[in-house]
Design a protein that fits this description.
Length: 307
Amino acid sequence: PYDVLIVGGGPAGAAAAVYAARKGIRTGVAAERFGGQVNDTMAIENYIAIPETDGPRFATSLDQHIKAYDVDVMNLQRAAKLVPAADPGGYAEVQLANGGTLKAKTVILSTGARWRNVNVPGEQEYKNKGVAYCPHCDGPLFKGKRVAVIGGGNSGVEAAIDLAGLVAHVTLIEFADKLRADAVLVKKLNSLPNVVVHLNAQTTELTGDGSKLNGLSWKDRVSGADNHIELEGVFVQIGLVPNTEWLKDTIELSRHGEIIVDARGQTSVPGVFAAGDATTTPFKQIIIAAGEGAKAALSAFDHIIRN
Ligand code: FAD
């Protein structure tokens, strides 16, 4: 059995592994895809002290850093169920989809999240070639250009406000007949001169020239008219879904499915900690996930020495 078993091998899980292993305790990481979302990222320019890198390089560095320590890395392993320890100081169990079971004194959940796709033609083809999901990450790449934001909830409207200060023009596309963001955000959005909002607008296609995105087609759901806008970027903001479906019967989740954690990364179950995009910690970024992973590992160590 492990002292610390980390489920998820993105930046949060990797940081937790390094911090746990440096305490000299038995550490394991089970991950469906080691590296996590970073594998799908092109430029990374906001990880402090690394002015510029790219996703695959960053993922390789995570792997190398962990391998400098005595950590059991179990890649391509999907956790299917968590069984909390029966009594304090006992072992929790993580059951894997392949039928195996791992036991540990403490568990750190760092299964991350996934951006919801619009599922229209062109989205996959132009991902990272104009189609983006993270305004904090990719906004600066579109400086002075024309972009659209798909989604008029809080994240879409925040993205549009954020981008309007960087890019030449923002078109916000909302499927419903009104924006679903907080009134204060909608008011701010409406005050911006370089933003246009289309309601009742269904995105039908993201167009491109074969190598990069060049436009967005949408249908007016009231008149039925088809429209096309020329632009250089599209930010899809229709939801970030935490990978926590497998935990809903054991751990307290928010109404968005995020693992509820306190300031130490403690979940609702003693001995079970969580970190990164899968949790209620705001702002889903690599540096934040890594910091929270380190914190969860230190909390797990603290739990072990007290039990
Ligand atoms: P993830 O990276 O999501 O890792 C989750 C891990 O858990 C993976 O190993 C996954 O396989 C595993 N997992 C999931 N479910 C299970 C399960 N049931 N069993 C076992 N393992 C499981 N952030 C920045 O700071 N800067 C950027 O420039 C940037 N650009 C981005 C670009 C794109 C296209 C995307 C998608 C995201 C970007 N982000 C960026 C966000 C950043 O990638 C995330 O905030 C960060 O990766 C979160 O780390 P995490 O460890 O919490 O989760």
